[in-house]
Amino acid sequence: MKEIETFLEDKKVRPTAMRVLIYKYMAEKEIAVALADIENAFTKADRTTLYRTLKTFEENGIVHQIDDGTGITKYALCDKGCNCEIEQDLHLHFHCLNCNETVCLTKHKIPHINLPEGYLAEDVNLVVKGICEKCSGQ
Amino acid sequence: MKEIETFLEDKKVRPTAMRVLIYKYMAEKEIAVALADIENAFTKADRTTLYRTLKTFEENGIVHQIDDGTGITKYALCDKGCNCEIEQDLHLHFHCLNCNETVCLTKHKIPHINLPEGYLAEDVNLVVKGICEKCSGQ
DNA sequence: CCAATAAATGCACTTCCATTGCACTTTTTA
DNA sequence: TAAAAAGTGCAATGGAAGTGCATTTATTGG
Ligand SMILES: [Mn+2]
Ligand SMILES: [Mn+2]
Ligand SMILES: [Zn+2]
Ligand SMILES: [Zn+2]
Q1: Which of A51, A99, A113, B12 has the most neighbouring CB atoms within 10 Å?
Q2: Which CATH class is domain B2-136?
Q3: Pairing, β B102-109 against β A120-131
């Protein structure tokens, strides 16, 4: 708990009660979370607060946003030392069509992509959809 | 014009006036189009018709849907012989952050992605964002 | 060609999620 | 301790996808 506070402070984010709780919640989950997930977990808090908390987290490199193609934005904590930069921290995301969960495969960096002459890459998003480990083992 | 009609018939899609026009419109564009783009081009037609036309086209392998991360669904004609199948026709898409246009890079197939044990891939989406050829050459 | 049937189209409405304006509360600063 | 800044809550907005149903248009069989 105390570590979370100092961590947030290091990231230039004031550790309010809500923020610490949200961080804790995300740290305990191994999967990416949607705003609605957090909303259900913290029924006392307003959605706007959660929304803005995630935005603040993102702006300060605490979480990264995930577009897994479902149309619902997901969020996950960034790895230690991650600065969400291209050719460096970009990992792929996996979305399970069975359990509907999305995970960061942080060990799987996105391969270098060759582009035609004149194209400049600034960001890459790679999402694999299929059946996750949990679901395929049933 | 006549070729479009027979093409659509080959794809088991009745070549109505609207459908032929929409196909023609997309064929003349080298970039992916949003529903709103077609809507602006054919102000006489209702959005639902356009929406359902694209859906019909997609179901019959005439167009493929593109999720370029903008939150707005784009559509583009499929290549001849494309059947939108994994490990075969999956190409990458490029979204320009300057001109906001999205293009199919059909020559650039998505590389094979290694997944952890237990994961089964069924679909892959790879979107590169950056500056397109047109915009970088200015 | 005509009636019956099927397909396509148009209009209105709904849903879902992201986002914002503004007032209020809590914390920080001087 | 008063003023300022930051955080929070409520209500409303906006954009885009999707659907139900009535109407129009095309197809088919007699
Ligand atoms: Mn991730
Ligand atoms: Mn494409
Ligand atoms: Zn699963
Ligand atoms: Zn461009």
Answers
A1: A113
A2: mainly alpha
A3: unpaired
